[in-house]
Amino acid sequence: MAANGLLTLGRVKLSDLIATDGVPSDSYKLSVSTLSQSLAQYSAAIIQFSSSDGALLRSGLDSARLYFHQRPSFPDAIQSDDSREWCRTSGYYADPQLWQETYDYRPGLTPPDEHSSSNSVEFLPPGALPDIFALLGRAARGILDAISFYLNLRSSPFAEILDNVPLRDREISSSVLSVCCHARPSFQGAHGQMGGLYEDDDHHVDKSLISLVKSDKAGLHIRDFNGRWVVVDGDLGPQEAIVFPGLALYQATAGYVNPALHRTDTSSGMQSNMCGRCSLTFKLMPKSMTNLSSTEMRAAGHGVESQFQLPVLVDDFMQRSYTTDYILNKHGYQGFGLSSSQDGSVMKPTMKRKKSNNSRCKPLPPSKRLRLEAQRVLKERVQDIADKKGIKLKFCNLKECESHVHDVDSPCANIRMEIGWPPGVPFVHPHDLPNKAKMGFLEAYEPGWTATQDLDMALAESGRGGSQHSDIM
Protein backbone atom coordinates (compact mmCIF):
# COMPACT_ATOMS: atom_id res chain seq x y z
CA MET A 1 0.00 0.00 0.00
CA ALA A 2 1.20 3.50 -0.67
CA ALA A 3 2.87 5.23 2.23
CA ASN A 4 0.18 7.87 2.32
CA GLY A 5 -2.64 5.34 2.08
CA LEU A 6 -5.06 4.26 4.78
CA LEU A 7 -4.04 1.33 6.97
CA THR A 8 -7.69 0.29 7.46
CA LEU A 9 -11.09 1.25 6.07
CA GLY A 10 -11.79 4.95 6.41
CA ARG A 11 -14.32 5.97 9.07
CA VAL A 12 -16.42 9.03 8.34
CA LYS A 13 -19.22 10.68 10.30
CA LEU A 14 -22.30 11.08 8.16
CA SER A 15 -22.92 14.52 9.66
CA ASP A 16 -19.53 15.68 8.33
CA LEU A 17 -20.39 14.49 4.81
CA ILE A 18 -23.57 16.54 4.46
CA ALA A 19 -22.83 19.59 2.34
CA THR A 20 -23.95 23.08 3.29
CA ASP A 21 -24.10 26.34 1.32
CA GLY A 22 -20.97 28.43 1.04
CA VAL A 23 -17.30 27.56 1.22
CA PRO A 24 -16.69 23.90 2.18
CA SER A 25 -15.45 23.49 5.75
CA ASP A 26 -12.19 21.75 6.62
CA SER A 27 -14.11 18.91 8.27
CA TYR A 28 -16.13 18.40 5.08
CA LYS A 29 -13.03 18.34 2.89
CA LEU A 30 -11.27 15.95 5.26
CA SER A 31 -14.30 13.65 5.38
CA VAL A 32 -14.62 13.63 1.56
CA SER A 33 -10.89 12.91 1.32
CA THR A 34 -11.09 9.99 3.75
CA LEU A 35 -14.18 8.56 2.05
CA SER A 36 -12.63 8.79 -1.42
CA GLN A 37 -9.31 7.33 -0.35
CA SER A 38 -11.04 4.43 1.39
CA LEU A 39 -13.15 3.72 -1.71
CA ALA A 40 -10.00 3.80 -3.83
CA GLN A 41 -8.09 1.35 -1.64
CA TYR A 42 -10.81 -0.90 -0.24
CA SER A 43 -13.88 -0.23 -2.46
CA ALA A 44 -15.71 0.46 0.80
CA ALA A 45 -15.82 2.80 3.79
CA ILE A 46 -17.41 2.90 7.26
CA ILE A 47 -20.15 5.48 7.85
CA GLN A 48 -20.87 6.59 11.42
CA PHE A 49 -24.47 7.55 12.22
CA SER A 50 -25.79 9.50 15.18
CA SER A 51 -26.70 7.61 18.36
CA SER A 52 -30.44 7.88 17.64
CA ASP A 53 -30.01 6.69 14.05
CA GLY A 54 -27.82 3.84 15.25
CA ALA A 55 -30.55 2.78 17.66
CA LEU A 56 -33.05 2.74 14.80
CA LEU A 57 -30.79 0.47 12.73
CA ARG A 58 -30.26 -1.91 15.65
CA SER A 59 -34.00 -2.12 16.30
CA GLY A 60 -34.45 -2.97 12.62
CA LEU A 61 -31.98 -5.86 12.96
CA ASP A 62 -33.76 -7.10 16.11
CA SER A 63 -37.06 -7.07 14.25
CA ALA A 64 -35.46 -8.87 11.29
CA ARG A 65 -34.20 -11.70 13.50
CA LEU A 66 -37.68 -12.22 14.95
CA TYR A 67 -39.29 -12.09 11.50
CA PHE A 68 -37.05 -14.75 9.93
CA HIS A 69 -37.05 -16.93 13.06
CA GLN A 70 -40.83 -17.25 12.71
CA ARG A 71 -40.72 -18.14 9.01
CA PRO A 72 -41.29 -21.80 8.04
CA SER A 73 -38.32 -24.02 7.21
CA PHE A 74 -39.33 -24.46 3.59
CA PRO A 75 -39.29 -21.25 1.50
CA ASP A 76 -42.73 -20.34 0.23
CA ALA A 77 -41.40 -17.93 -2.42
CA ILE A 78 -38.32 -18.63 -4.56
CA GLN A 79 -36.32 -15.75 -5.98
CA SER A 80 -37.08 -15.12 -9.65
CA ASP A 81 -34.30 -15.06 -12.23
CA ASP A 82 -36.24 -12.63 -14.42
CA SER A 83 -33.95 -9.60 -14.80
CA ARG A 84 -36.89 -7.53 -16.02
CA GLU A 85 -38.24 -7.54 -12.45
CA TRP A 86 -35.21 -5.72 -11.01
CA CYS A 87 -37.30 -2.69 -9.99
CA ARG A 88 -40.42 -4.63 -8.97
CA THR A 89 -39.23 -6.88 -6.15
CA SER A 90 -41.25 -6.64 -2.96
CA GLY A 91 -41.97 -8.78 0.08
CA TYR A 92 -40.44 -12.14 1.04
CA TYR A 93 -38.48 -14.47 -1.21
CA ALA A 94 -35.64 -16.96 -0.78
CA ASP A 95 -32.62 -18.24 -2.65
CA PRO A 96 -31.91 -21.79 -1.41
CA GLN A 97 -28.67 -21.96 -3.41
CA LEU A 98 -27.20 -19.08 -1.40
CA TRP A 99 -29.03 -20.03 1.83
CA GLN A 100 -30.43 -16.54 1.85
CA GLU A 101 -33.86 -15.17 2.69
CA THR A 102 -34.86 -11.61 1.87
CA TYR A 103 -37.69 -9.23 2.58
CA ASP A 104 -37.69 -6.29 0.15
CA TYR A 105 -39.30 -3.03 1.17
CA ARG A 106 -40.02 -0.86 -1.87
CA PRO A 107 -42.14 2.30 -1.26
CA GLY A 108 -45.03 2.61 -3.67
CA LEU A 109 -45.19 -1.15 -4.17
CA THR A 110 -44.82 -2.84 -0.78
CA PRO A 111 -48.14 -2.48 1.10
CA PRO A 112 -47.70 -0.62 4.39
CA ASP A 113 -49.62 -3.41 6.18
CA GLU A 114 -48.83 -6.54 4.20
CA HIS A 115 -50.42 -8.74 6.83
CA SER A 116 -53.79 -7.02 6.72
CA SER A 117 -55.20 -9.61 4.32
CA SER A 118 -54.15 -12.52 6.52
CA ASN A 119 -55.75 -13.86 9.65
CA SER A 120 -52.36 -14.73 11.07
CA VAL A 121 -49.90 -12.25 12.53
CA GLU A 122 -46.84 -14.51 12.35
CA PHE A 123 -45.75 -12.98 9.05
CA LEU A 124 -45.81 -9.37 10.13
CA PRO A 125 -43.06 -7.63 8.13
CA PRO A 126 -39.98 -6.40 10.00
CA GLY A 127 -40.64 -3.17 11.86
CA ALA A 128 -39.56 0.43 11.20
CA LEU A 129 -38.79 -0.19 7.52
CA PRO A 130 -40.17 3.17 6.27
CA ASP A 131 -38.01 5.04 8.81
CA ILE A 132 -34.91 2.99 8.01
CA PHE A 133 -35.50 3.44 4.28
CA ALA A 134 -35.71 7.23 4.73
CA LEU A 135 -32.59 7.31 6.93
CA LEU A 136 -30.40 5.25 4.60
CA GLY A 137 -31.79 7.02 1.54
CA ARG A 138 -30.70 10.41 2.90
CA ALA A 139 -27.31 8.95 3.80
CA ALA A 140 -26.78 7.42 0.35
CA ARG A 141 -27.65 10.68 -1.41
CA GLY A 142 -25.28 12.62 0.86
CA ILE A 143 -22.48 10.15 0.13
CA LEU A 144 -23.17 10.39 -3.60
CA ASP A 145 -22.93 14.18 -3.42
CA ALA A 146 -19.63 13.89 -1.53
CA ILE A 147 -18.21 11.67 -4.29
CA SER A 148 -19.43 14.24 -6.84
CA PHE A 149 -17.59 16.99 -4.94
CA TYR A 150 -14.39 14.96 -5.01
CA LEU A 151 -14.76 14.41 -8.76
CA ASN A 152 -15.29 18.17 -9.21
CA LEU A 153 -18.78 17.67 -10.64
CA ARG A 154 -21.55 20.21 -10.22
CA SER A 155 -23.88 19.98 -7.22
CA SER A 156 -26.32 17.05 -7.27
CA PRO A 157 -25.31 15.88 -10.77
CA PHE A 158 -27.30 12.65 -10.49
CA ALA A 159 -30.59 14.23 -9.36
CA GLU A 160 -32.25 13.61 -12.74
CA ILE A 161 -31.74 9.84 -12.56
CA LEU A 162 -32.86 9.48 -8.92
CA ASP A 163 -36.37 9.07 -7.54
CA ASN A 164 -38.39 12.12 -6.55
CA VAL A 165 -38.24 13.08 -2.86
CA PRO A 166 -40.88 12.36 -1.77
CA LEU A 167 -42.36 10.03 -4.40
CA ARG A 168 -45.20 11.49 -6.44
CA ASP A 169 -48.64 9.91 -6.70
CA ARG A 170 -48.51 6.32 -8.02
CA GLU A 171 -44.72 6.35 -8.34
CA ILE A 172 -42.78 3.25 -7.31
CA SER A 173 -39.36 3.57 -5.75
CA SER A 174 -36.40 2.37 -7.81
CA SER A 175 -34.30 2.16 -4.65
CA VAL A 176 -34.96 -0.72 -2.27
CA LEU A 177 -34.31 -1.71 1.35
CA SER A 178 -33.53 -5.43 1.62
CA VAL A 179 -33.76 -7.17 4.99
CA CYS A 180 -31.64 -10.30 4.62
CA CYS A 181 -30.94 -13.45 6.60
CA HIS A 182 -28.06 -15.78 5.71
CA ALA A 183 -27.76 -19.35 6.95
CA ARG A 184 -30.76 -19.57 9.29
CA PRO A 185 -30.33 -23.05 10.84
CA SER A 186 -34.00 -24.04 10.61
CA PHE A 187 -34.12 -22.94 6.97
CA GLN A 188 -30.91 -24.83 6.16
CA GLY A 189 -32.01 -27.90 8.08
CA ALA A 190 -34.95 -28.28 5.72
CA HIS A 191 -32.46 -28.90 2.93
CA GLY A 192 -30.16 -31.17 4.90
CA GLN A 193 -26.98 -29.09 4.63
CA MET A 194 -25.30 -25.99 5.90
CA GLY A 195 -23.99 -23.00 3.98
CA GLY A 196 -20.23 -23.13 3.81
CA LEU A 197 -17.21 -21.28 2.59
CA TYR A 198 -17.46 -19.75 -0.84
CA GLU A 199 -15.49 -20.71 -3.91
CA ASP A 200 -12.85 -18.40 -5.33
CA ASP A 201 -15.20 -17.18 -8.04
CA ASP A 202 -18.25 -16.84 -5.76
CA HIS A 203 -18.58 -13.08 -5.61
CA HIS A 204 -21.09 -10.47 -6.62
CA VAL A 205 -21.37 -6.85 -7.63
CA ASP A 206 -24.39 -4.67 -6.96
CA LYS A 207 -25.85 -2.75 -9.88
CA SER A 208 -26.69 0.15 -7.58
CA LEU A 209 -25.20 3.61 -7.43
CA ILE A 210 -24.50 3.29 -3.71
CA SER A 211 -25.12 0.40 -1.30
CA LEU A 212 -25.28 0.72 2.50
CA VAL A 213 -25.13 -2.39 4.71
CA LYS A 214 -25.69 -2.78 8.45
CA SER A 215 -25.23 -6.35 9.78
CA ASP A 216 -25.43 -8.00 13.17
CA LYS A 217 -22.42 -10.28 12.58
CA ALA A 218 -19.21 -10.09 10.61
CA GLY A 219 -19.04 -11.87 7.27
CA LEU A 220 -19.01 -9.30 4.45
CA HIS A 221 -15.81 -9.58 2.40
CA ILE A 222 -14.86 -7.00 -0.25
CA ARG A 223 -12.00 -7.22 -2.70
CA ASP A 224 -9.51 -4.37 -2.23
CA PHE A 225 -7.37 -2.59 -4.83
CA ASN A 226 -4.58 -5.18 -4.48
CA GLY A 227 -6.92 -8.11 -5.07
CA ARG A 228 -7.11 -9.22 -1.42
CA TRP A 229 -10.40 -10.06 0.27
CA VAL A 230 -10.98 -7.91 3.36
CA VAL A 231 -13.57 -8.47 6.08
CA VAL A 232 -15.11 -5.00 6.16
CA ASP A 233 -17.68 -5.44 8.95
CA GLY A 234 -15.46 -7.21 11.48
CA ASP A 235 -15.17 -4.34 13.93
CA LEU A 236 -18.26 -2.25 13.27
CA GLY A 237 -19.52 -0.14 16.14
CA PRO A 238 -23.21 -0.03 17.10
CA GLN A 239 -23.70 3.19 15.12
CA GLU A 240 -21.71 2.19 12.03
CA ALA A 241 -22.53 0.75 8.61
CA ILE A 242 -20.61 -0.15 5.46
CA VAL A 243 -20.93 1.82 2.21
CA PHE A 244 -19.66 0.67 -1.17
CA PRO A 245 -20.23 1.77 -4.80
CA GLY A 246 -22.08 -0.27 -7.39
CA LEU A 247 -21.94 -0.85 -11.12
CA ALA A 248 -24.35 1.98 -11.99
CA LEU A 249 -21.99 4.55 -10.41
CA TYR A 250 -19.08 2.97 -12.26
CA GLN A 251 -20.97 3.52 -15.53
CA ALA A 252 -22.16 7.04 -14.66
CA THR A 253 -18.62 8.16 -13.70
CA ALA A 254 -17.08 6.63 -16.83
CA GLY A 255 -15.13 4.07 -14.80
CA TYR A 256 -13.60 6.49 -12.28
CA VAL A 257 -15.38 4.89 -9.31
CA ASN A 258 -14.85 1.14 -9.25
CA PRO A 259 -17.71 -1.12 -8.10
CA ALA A 260 -17.15 -3.32 -5.07
CA LEU A 261 -16.80 -7.05 -5.57
CA HIS A 262 -18.21 -8.68 -2.44
CA ARG A 263 -19.14 -12.04 -0.96
CA THR A 264 -20.61 -13.23 2.33
CA ASP A 265 -19.13 -15.91 4.59
CA THR A 266 -21.98 -17.94 6.13
CA SER A 267 -19.87 -20.61 7.82
CA SER A 268 -18.19 -18.96 10.78
CA GLY A 269 -20.08 -19.69 13.99
CA MET A 270 -23.46 -20.05 12.29
CA GLN A 271 -24.16 -23.60 13.43
CA SER A 272 -24.68 -22.51 17.04
CA ASN A 273 -26.67 -19.42 16.09
CA MET A 274 -30.47 -19.59 16.09
CA CYS A 275 -31.10 -16.75 13.66
CA GLY A 276 -28.21 -16.83 11.20
CA ARG A 277 -26.69 -13.57 10.02
CA CYS A 278 -29.13 -10.70 9.52
CA SER A 279 -28.45 -7.49 7.64
CA LEU A 280 -30.14 -4.35 6.34
CA THR A 281 -29.06 -3.40 2.82
CA PHE A 282 -30.16 -0.19 1.14
CA LYS A 283 -29.48 0.17 -2.59
CA LEU A 284 -29.73 3.62 -4.13
CA MET A 285 -30.88 2.85 -7.67
CA PRO A 286 -31.40 5.01 -10.77
CA LYS A 287 -34.85 5.30 -12.33
CA SER A 288 -35.55 2.74 -15.03
CA MET A 289 -36.47 5.17 -17.85
CA THR A 290 -33.42 7.41 -17.46
CA ASN A 291 -29.92 7.13 -18.91
CA LEU A 292 -26.50 6.51 -17.40
CA SER A 293 -24.36 9.05 -19.21
CA SER A 294 -20.81 10.40 -18.93
CA THR A 295 -21.96 13.96 -19.76
CA GLU A 296 -21.20 15.27 -16.27
CA MET A 297 -17.72 13.74 -16.30
CA ARG A 298 -16.88 15.32 -19.65
CA ALA A 299 -18.20 18.69 -18.45
CA ALA A 300 -15.83 18.49 -15.48
CA GLY A 301 -12.88 17.88 -17.80
CA HIS A 302 -12.37 14.16 -17.19
CA GLY A 303 -11.27 11.91 -20.00
CA VAL A 304 -13.95 9.43 -21.11
CA GLU A 305 -13.01 6.14 -22.71
CA SER A 306 -14.85 4.91 -25.78
CA GLN A 307 -16.92 2.31 -23.92
CA PHE A 308 -18.57 5.10 -21.88
CA GLN A 309 -19.19 7.54 -24.74
CA LEU A 310 -22.77 6.50 -25.43
CA PRO A 311 -25.57 6.90 -22.86
CA VAL A 312 -27.11 3.63 -21.67
CA LEU A 313 -30.78 3.24 -20.80
CA VAL A 314 -30.97 2.19 -17.15
CA ASP A 315 -33.56 -0.52 -17.77
CA ASP A 316 -31.32 -2.11 -20.42
CA PHE A 317 -28.27 -1.75 -18.17
CA MET A 318 -29.97 -3.55 -15.30
CA GLN A 319 -31.06 -6.47 -17.48
CA ARG A 320 -27.60 -7.15 -18.86
CA SER A 321 -25.35 -9.72 -17.25
CA TYR A 322 -21.78 -8.67 -16.52
CA THR A 323 -19.01 -11.20 -16.11
CA THR A 324 -16.64 -10.71 -13.23
CA ASP A 325 -13.77 -10.72 -15.74
CA TYR A 326 -15.22 -7.49 -17.17
CA ILE A 327 -15.11 -5.88 -13.73
CA LEU A 328 -11.81 -7.40 -12.60
CA ASN A 329 -10.04 -6.27 -15.75
CA LYS A 330 -11.21 -2.72 -15.15
CA HIS A 331 -9.91 -2.71 -11.59
CA GLY A 332 -6.48 -2.02 -13.04
CA TYR A 333 -7.75 1.43 -13.95
CA GLN A 334 -7.40 3.57 -10.85
CA GLY A 335 -10.20 6.10 -10.62
CA PHE A 336 -9.55 7.80 -7.30
CA GLY A 337 -6.05 9.06 -6.63
CA LEU A 338 -4.18 8.33 -3.39
CA SER A 339 -2.17 11.52 -3.05
CA SER A 340 -2.56 13.83 -0.09
CA SER A 341 -1.30 17.17 1.11
CA GLN A 342 1.51 17.58 3.66
CA ASP A 343 -0.85 17.52 6.63
CA GLY A 344 -3.11 14.86 5.12
CA SER A 345 -6.15 17.05 5.63
CA VAL A 346 -7.10 17.70 2.02
CA MET A 347 -6.67 15.23 -0.79
CA LYS A 348 -6.97 16.43 -4.36
CA PRO A 349 -8.09 14.07 -7.08
CA THR A 350 -5.31 12.69 -9.24
CA MET A 351 -7.58 11.18 -11.82
CA LYS A 352 -6.62 10.36 -15.38
CA ARG A 353 -7.60 13.09 -17.77
CA LYS A 354 -7.93 13.08 -21.48
CA LYS A 355 -4.66 13.96 -23.20
CA SER A 356 -4.62 16.30 -26.15
CA ASN A 357 -2.64 13.96 -28.39
CA ASN A 358 -3.16 10.32 -29.29
CA SER A 359 -5.50 9.41 -26.36
CA ARG A 360 -8.26 11.82 -27.36
CA CYS A 361 -11.63 10.13 -27.87
CA LYS A 362 -13.13 11.17 -31.17
CA PRO A 363 -16.57 12.83 -31.00
CA LEU A 364 -19.56 11.02 -32.37
CA PRO A 365 -20.78 12.07 -35.82
CA PRO A 366 -23.53 14.75 -35.54
CA SER A 367 -26.13 12.53 -37.23
CA LYS A 368 -25.51 9.75 -34.74
CA ARG A 369 -25.65 12.18 -31.82
CA LEU A 370 -28.97 13.47 -33.13
CA ARG A 371 -30.35 9.95 -33.35
CA LEU A 372 -29.24 9.06 -29.83
CA GLU A 373 -30.61 12.30 -28.39
CA ALA A 374 -33.94 11.76 -30.12
CA GLN A 375 -34.20 8.22 -28.76
CA ARG A 376 -33.36 9.45 -25.26
CA VAL A 377 -36.00 12.21 -25.34
CA LEU A 378 -38.57 9.75 -26.66
CA LYS A 379 -38.02 7.45 -23.70
CA GLU A 380 -37.61 10.14 -21.03
CA ARG A 381 -40.19 12.72 -22.11
CA VAL A 382 -42.65 11.56 -24.74
CA GLN A 383 -43.26 8.09 -23.32
CA ASP A 384 -43.86 9.61 -19.89
CA ILE A 385 -46.48 12.00 -21.30
CA ALA A 386 -48.19 9.16 -23.17
CA ASP A 387 -48.22 6.92 -20.09
CA LYS A 388 -49.80 9.61 -17.94
CA LYS A 389 -52.55 10.14 -20.52
CA GLY A 390 -53.07 6.42 -21.07
CA ILE A 391 -52.02 6.62 -24.72
CA LYS A 392 -50.30 3.77 -26.52
CA LEU A 393 -47.83 5.16 -29.03
CA LYS A 394 -48.23 3.63 -32.48
CA PHE A 395 -46.13 5.48 -35.02
CA CYS A 396 -46.94 5.97 -38.70
CA ASN A 397 -44.94 5.15 -41.78
CA LEU A 398 -42.77 8.11 -42.83
CA LYS A 399 -44.08 8.31 -46.42
CA GLU A 400 -47.71 8.05 -45.39
CA CYS A 401 -47.36 10.55 -42.55
CA GLU A 402 -45.83 13.31 -44.66
CA SER A 403 -49.35 14.02 -45.86
CA HIS A 404 -50.87 13.60 -42.37
CA VAL A 405 -49.01 16.44 -40.67
CA HIS A 406 -51.24 19.11 -42.22
CA ASP A 407 -54.49 17.15 -42.04
CA VAL A 408 -56.60 17.60 -38.89
CA ASP A 409 -58.59 14.46 -39.74
CA SER A 410 -55.58 12.19 -40.18
CA PRO A 411 -55.36 8.90 -38.20
CA CYS A 412 -52.63 10.29 -35.92
CA ALA A 413 -54.02 13.82 -35.47
CA ASN A 414 -55.58 13.19 -32.05
CA ILE A 415 -52.49 11.50 -30.62
CA ARG A 416 -50.22 14.26 -31.92
CA MET A 417 -52.41 16.88 -30.28
CA GLU A 418 -52.68 14.97 -26.96
CA ILE A 419 -48.94 14.52 -26.47
CA GLY A 420 -47.90 17.90 -27.93
CA TRP A 421 -46.13 16.51 -30.99
CA PRO A 422 -44.39 19.41 -32.81
CA PRO A 423 -46.28 20.80 -35.86
CA GLY A 424 -44.81 19.87 -39.22
CA VAL A 425 -42.90 16.87 -37.86
CA PRO A 426 -44.19 13.49 -39.16
CA PHE A 427 -45.53 11.20 -36.43
CA VAL A 428 -42.94 8.47 -36.90
CA HIS A 429 -40.37 6.96 -34.57
CA PRO A 430 -37.67 9.64 -33.98
CA HIS A 431 -35.03 7.13 -35.09
CA ASP A 432 -36.53 7.28 -38.61
CA LEU A 433 -37.01 11.06 -38.81
CA PRO A 434 -34.81 13.13 -41.14
CA ASN A 435 -32.18 15.14 -39.25
CA LYS A 436 -34.06 18.44 -39.62
CA ALA A 437 -37.24 16.84 -38.27
CA LYS A 438 -35.24 15.28 -35.41
CA MET A 439 -34.08 18.75 -34.40
CA GLY A 440 -37.66 20.03 -34.46
CA PHE A 441 -38.67 17.08 -32.27
CA LEU A 442 -35.86 17.77 -29.79
CA GLU A 443 -36.57 21.49 -29.60
CA ALA A 444 -40.23 20.78 -28.81
CA TYR A 445 -39.66 18.33 -25.95
CA GLU A 446 -36.30 19.50 -24.62
CA PRO A 447 -36.39 23.31 -24.18
CA GLY A 448 -32.93 24.85 -24.52
CA TRP A 449 -31.59 21.89 -26.45
CA THR A 450 -30.53 23.99 -29.47
CA ALA A 451 -28.46 26.40 -27.44
CA THR A 452 -26.36 23.69 -25.83
CA GLN A 453 -26.02 21.25 -28.71
CA ASP A 454 -25.77 23.13 -32.00
CA LEU A 455 -22.32 24.54 -31.27
CA ASP A 456 -20.96 21.13 -30.29
CA MET A 457 -22.31 19.62 -33.49
CA ALA A 458 -20.84 22.39 -35.59
CA LEU A 459 -17.45 21.86 -33.96
CA ALA A 460 -17.75 18.13 -34.53
CA GLU A 461 -18.54 18.73 -38.20
CA SER A 462 -15.52 21.00 -38.62
CA GLY A 463 -13.32 18.44 -36.90
CA ARG A 464 -14.49 15.74 -39.27
CA GLY A 465 -13.85 18.00 -42.22
CA GLY A 466 -10.22 18.43 -41.14
CA SER A 467 -9.71 14.70 -40.63
CA GLN A 468 -11.16 12.70 -43.49
CA HIS A 469 -9.84 9.41 -42.12
CA SER A 470 -11.36 9.69 -38.66
CA ASP A 471 -13.05 6.57 -37.34
CA ILE A 472 -16.78 6.31 -36.67
CA MET A 473 -17.58 4.64 -33.38
From TrEMBL:
Gene3D superfamilies, alphabetized: B-lactam Antibiotic, Isopenicillin N Synthase, Chain
Protein origin, superkingdom: Eukaryota
Start and end residues of each stretch annotated as Disordered: 344-366
Transmembrane segments: none
Protein name: 2-oxoglutarate (2OG) and Fe(II)-dependent oxygenase superfamily protein
Origin species: Linum tenue
